[in-house]
Design goal:
Pathway: Amino-acid degradation; L-lysine degradation via saccharopine pathway; glutaryl-CoA from L-lysine: step 2/6; Amino-acid degradation; L-lysine degradation via saccharopine pathway; glutaryl-CoA from L-lysine: step 1/6
Largest sheet: 8 strands, mixed
Distance between the termini: 116 Å
CATH superfamily of the largest domain: NAD(P)-binding Rossmann-like Domain
Number of strands: 39
Strand content: 15-25%
Structural class: alpha/beta
Radius of gyration: 38 Å
CATH topology of the largest domain: Rossmann fold
Shape: flat
Organism: Amphora coffeiformis
Number of helices: 37
Keywords: Multifunctional enzyme, NADP, Oxidoreductase
GO molecular function, one term: saccharopine dehydrogenase activity
Family: In the C-terminal section; belongs to the saccharopine dehydrogenase family.
């Protein structure tokens, strides 16, 4: 043995000397023939993963490189794991050595396991997994900076195209191993399938399929597949039913690799529609025995819209919440083996869930034996892939009923799972050849650049292509390169914490979009730095991505008062907004975050995107809506034109950002925000809703409002339905909770075969009794103009089949005492607009009475009618400088010299009510020389008085009251009187009105985000699938209806009643 070792040592030494001699000869020849300086390339020993057998360059590539560029030397670190032997590299002209200190460029596949292996001032190329700020790889990045390593990352090595680069189009990755993952995955799947079927007592041709790692090369694996195919043709599969292999991800390179192998078997390609027929047809058993049935599935085959069963790729990519998987119902019941090659992230519905499989197993549908998740998204598209597997233990058993792994070996029950995440290295020969082929062009470019500039540390970048110089180089000369300066915040936060904490935080901004592909994040950082401010990165969220499928990222930046003055911070914000608007590839938005909520340390989150709600408007309802949304895992952006109000609201909640602008004056900005949101909640005035809806329609984004559905919105209904948009209106108090609580009763009656014969629904927002301490018994929490306007709307209703119509100018004279509920409060009720249309909306055309009303404290309507008669609600009368002369002018206009006589006349000669009106005017300070609002109409000036004098004082509560009285009759003549009532008081957290509207609207937003609404287009909360979840949600805030039913016999049956 010693003699053998001595001879081997001598042999290797001789080869080493020979190789060095050849190098010396080539070098001397080069010196004579060319001015190119010598360049040395090193190949690293792979240390990061024990199963990694790939190489960045094969011996063939080394030989080609040395032949084309005689001035190059290649050093290879010895490694017995490589698919190519050390002798192969030596024969190609490489020098085996552990010492790569003479190398100018050092290549590996994976990053070195130990950062101590990095050599100072050298250029390294490998997959570093650092560009997302992955915490586990930040020490590697830091070491590269400390050692002045020039790091080039294969992940960002782009296939350069000068035209595309010039126009700013996105470039594709140069190196991708998708095909080899598919090839190896198909081989391992059949290997596992053969073993699985054997445990069930079935010996099949698949037993002769080895795992990919035991094949010398792809050709050997393909030959084995040919042999398996011949056995299937001649001997059959010995099965009683078809063997169906379903392969997802059609159109992708992984899917292509799988099909490349499966096509070598005798097979027939089927569609989803073919499956039932395939299993029902008896005459085809012979064909079934000698064929494998392949079902290739594209995304559009696996996912369908929940409303109409269609598929639109652009729509699916923008908002996949509209879609659901058909796999469990249409495919898995017929599939024996599922090979998943489809891209997935958390925005998308899962292909197959635990619940799906449990349901199928409970129904006895257990055909699925094998699942190979080549995409290997743990807990993702295949929910029950709960861990990845290794090459040495590639399979585990999953029990759908127990919803857990039962064994790490193949067994006869449950589902066999394959989840290896480094499949390409199982075919290291072809993977390395592919890798090297892609790399050679770039390598030549790098060598030439170095050869021309031998004295420069690292590879000079000024002559490199765009895809290398501007993208792949992460670090150089001890610094992060321009495109990756954002990583400094994540890597070195601790070192600069004391310095940063000494600066005053001025502003925090959240940026969302294609921040890195477009390069806009670095432009943002440059702008901040050039403006003299410091910056701190608080949050860095990059969802899981795949090659050539960029996902939007999110960064929160806190601007620090370094040298610049705080007065200029608004200018900086405007500059940043203009900057992102000028980079369309970024498709970015910028919103404000309360800087007081910023994290102490920057954090990188590599996870799924969270649902995003855009809230328009910061009025009195917004706080309750934001509070409710903030409790859930929803990222909220608030848009307001009031910076103080927006900042105050956003500061109260951790997951609420804000942006200040007028939505109607900057539609482009609004469009970007809506495009990047899952749903919009508009709390703006109702006339603005159609404008917002048009933008939502263009961006296919859902919209929720608490306002009445308008004619303009109705005109968009069909288009909304066509694009799959939900526009859910009337989800406040009234309208909103009135619909929901009433329809709960109506649906219950109809479900039991009854008919509604009388429907009455009334609602009011009032001061609590203890706060109703003024002549009006009323107070305002917002502009009185809306209340005054509503007091002049016409109304009509049905009373025992008699149509009652009330003109607008007579509405206040038609109040009546409300005796059906809360008699101690002395309420009155006014008709509320057109009640008749609700017979159709609520589906109760049979009712003889339908009435909707507004509740006020008794005497309110009479008092307001007198003031209306006096002219205080006129639009065309301009006030005098003070109130008493204004009232006299109104009196004189009607021919009265004395104000008291005028008031009595306006009270229809009712002196008692006239006296009450004068007392009210005196209480409002309008019977003396109190200044009016200059140059305004009398109604506007009167509104200002009401808003000031009838405002809620600190600590006072408002109250919401709602009451339904619904009578029904049934086939047997039984009648029911249903009463449903709500009395809800405001609290220190907000007014009753703002909470009942805000909580309800927020519940609707969260329900839309849940993707359980099947309908699309214009919707009202009048279907049980919508109103019940919202009622359940608001009940958690204490908004609950008290319900009672009084039943009594009826002499006349229902059919007789209908014909009476």
């Amino acid at each position: 043995m010693a003699i053998l070792s001595f001879h081997r040592l001598g042999y290797n030494l001789l080869r080493r000397i020979t190789a060095q001699t050849k190098w010396s000869f080539r070098r001397s020849m080069t010196s004579a023939m060319t001015t190119s300086s010598p360049v040395t390339v090193g190949i690293l020993r792979e240390t990061y993963d024990p199963w990694e057998r790939r190489c960045p360059l094969t011996p063939h590539h080394v030989r080609e490189l040395l032949q084309k560029r005689p001035h190059v030397r290649v050093l290879v670190q010895p490694c017995q794991r490589r698919v190519f032997s050390q002798e192969d590299y030596e024969q190609a002209g490489a020098i085996l050595t552990n010492d790569l200190s003479e190398a100018d460029l050092i290549l590996g596949v994976k990053r070195p396991a130990d950062v101590g292996l990095l050599l100072p001032e050298k250029t390294f190329m490998f997959f570093s997994h650092t560009i997302k700020g992955q915490p586990e790889n930040m020490p590697l990045l830091k070491a590269c900076l400390e050692e002045h390593v020039q790091l080039m990352d294969y992940e960002r090595l782009l296939d350069d195209n000068a035209g595309k680069a010039a126009h700013g189009d996105k470039l594709k990755r140069l190196v991708s191993f998708g095909r080899f993952a598919g090839l190896a995955g198909a081989i391992d799947t059949l290997h596992g399938l053969g073993r699985r079927l054997l445990t069930e007592g079935q010996s099949t041709a698949f037993l002769s399929c080895p795992p990919a790692i035991l094949c010398d090369d792809l050709e050997q694996a393909q030959e084995r597949f040919h042999q398996i195919g011949q056995k299937i043709k001649t001997q059959g599969l010995h099965r009683e039913e078809p063997l169906v292999v379903t392969v997802t991800g059609k159109g992708g390179t992984v899917h292509g690799g799988v099909m490349e192998m499966l096509d070598l078997l005798p097979h027939k390609v089927v569609s989803v529609e073919d499956l039932p027929v395939l299993f029902e047809t008896e005459s085809s058993k012979t064909a079934q025995q000698h064929n494998v049935y392949l079902l290739p599935m594209a995304t559009g085959d696996a996912f369908k819209r929940s409303d109409d069963g269609s598929f639109n790729r652009k729509d699916f990519q923008k908002d996949p919440s509209h879609y659901h998987s058909i796999m469990a119902d249409k495919v898995i019941p017929y599939t024996n083996t599922l090979i998943n090659c489809a891209y997935w992230d958390a925005r998308f519905p899962r292909l197959l869930t635990k619940d799906d499989m449990r349901r199928l197993y409970n129904d006895g549908q257990k055909r699925l034996r094998m699942v190979s998740d080549i995409s290997c998204d743990v807990g993702g598209s295949i929910e029950f892939l709960e861990r990845s597997t290794s090459i040495d233990k590639p399979f585990f058993q999953y029990d759908p009923l127990m919803e857990s792994e039962t064994s790490d070996t193949i067994g006869p029950s449950g589902i066999t799972i394959l989840g290896v995440d480094i499949l390409p290295t199982e075919l290291p020969l072809e993977s390395s050849q592919h890798f090297g082929n892609k790399l050679m062009g770039v390598l030549g470019e790098l060598i030439d650049a170095k050869s021309k500039n031998p004295d420069i540390v690292g590879i000079p970048t000024h002559n490199l292509s765009h895809g290398v110089a501007n993208s792949a180089i992460t670090t150089a000369n001890g610094r992060l390169t321009t495109n990756y300066r954002y990583l400094h915040q994540l890597m070195n936060r601790a070192e600069h914490s004391d310095q940063e904490e000494s600066y005053q935080p001025l502003l925090a901004l959240r940026f969302e979009g294609h921040l890195f592909d477009s390069g806009v994040i670095n432009q943002v950082l440059d702008t901040i730095e050039e403006s003299g401010y410091g910056v701190h990165m608080d949050e860095f969220v990059i969802p899981k991505t795949r090659p050539n499928n960029p996902i939007k990222s999110s960064i929160v930046l806190t601007i620090l008062d370094k040298k610049a003055h705080e007065d200029h911070i608004d200018d900086l914000e405007a500059d940043l907004q203009n900057l992102i608007a000028k980079v369309p590839l970024a498709d970015a938005t910028m919103t404000r975050v309360d800087h007081k909520k910023r994290e102490k340390a920057a954090k990188a989150i590599d996870g799924p995107p969270v649902p995003k709600a855009l809230v328009l408007g910061s009025g009195f309802v917004a706080r309750a809506a934001l509070e409710s949304l903030a409790r859930s895992k929803v990222q909220v952006t608030l848009v307001s034109n009031d910076p103080t109000e927006a900042a105050s609201l956003a500061s109260a909640f951790d997951n609420v950002d804000y942006v200040v602008f007028d939505v109607q004056s900057d539609q482009d900005r609004l469009s970007r925000l809506i495009r990047n949101s899952s749903v919009v909640l508009s709390l703006l005035p109702a006339p603005i809703h159609p404008f917002v809806a048009n933008v939502c329609l263009a961006e296919r984004t859902h919209l929720v409002t608490s306002s009445y559905e308008s004619d303009e919105l109705r005109s968009m209904g069909n288009r909304m339905k066509e694009v799959g948009m939900i526009c859910l209106n009337e989800v406040g108090l009234d309208p909103g909770l009135d619909h929901m609580s009433a329809m709960k009763i109506v649906d219950n009656v109809h479900l039991r075969g009854g008919a509604i014969v009388s429907f009455s629904s009334v609602c009011g927002g009032l001061p609590s009794p203890e706060a109703a301490d003024n002549p009006f018994g009323y107070k305002f929490s917002w502009s009185p103009r809306g209340v005054l306007r509503a007091s002049g709307f016409p109304a009509r209703f049905l009373l025992d089949n008699e149509l009652i119509e009330v003109q607008g100018n007579d509405l206040l004279n038609n109040a009546r005492p409300f005796v059906e509920g809360w008699p101690e409060m002395g309420l009155e009720v006014l008709p509320n607009r057109d009640s008749l249309k609700y017979a159709e909306i609520y589906g109760i055309p049979e009712t003889r009475t339908i009435f909707r009303g507004t509740l006020r404290y008794g005497g309110f309507s009479t008092l307001m009618a007198i003031l209306r008669n006096m002219g205080l609600m006129d639009e065309d009368f301009t006030v005098k400088e003070s109130w008493y002369p204004t009232l006299l002018a109104l009196s004189n206009r009607r021919g009265f010299e004395q104000l008291e006589d005028f008031v009595v006349a306006c009270a229809q000669e009712n002196t008692k009510e006239a006296s009450r009106a004068l007392q009210a005017l005196r209480w409002l300070d309008m019977l003396k020389e109190t200044p009016t609002t200059p140059n305004s109409s009398v109604v506007d000036a009167f509104c200002d008085v009401l808003a000031n004098r009838l405002a809620y004082k600190e600590g006072e509560r408002d109250m919401v009251v709602m009451h339904h009285n619904i009578e029904a009759i049934f086939e047997d003549g039984t009648t029911e009187s249903h009463v449903s009532s709500l009395r809800y008081h405001g609290s220190e957290n907000g007014s009753a009105m703002s909470q009942t509207v805000g909580y309800t609207a927020a519940a609707a937003v969260k329900f839309v985000l849940s993707d359980t609404i099947q309908d699309r287009g214009l919707l009202l909360p009048i279907k049980q699938q919508i109103y019940q979840p919202i009622l359940d949600a608001v009940s958690k805030h204490g908004i609950r209806f008290e319900e009672s039913v009084l039943r009594s016999p009826q002499h006349k049956p229902l059919h007789a009643e209908q014909h009476a």
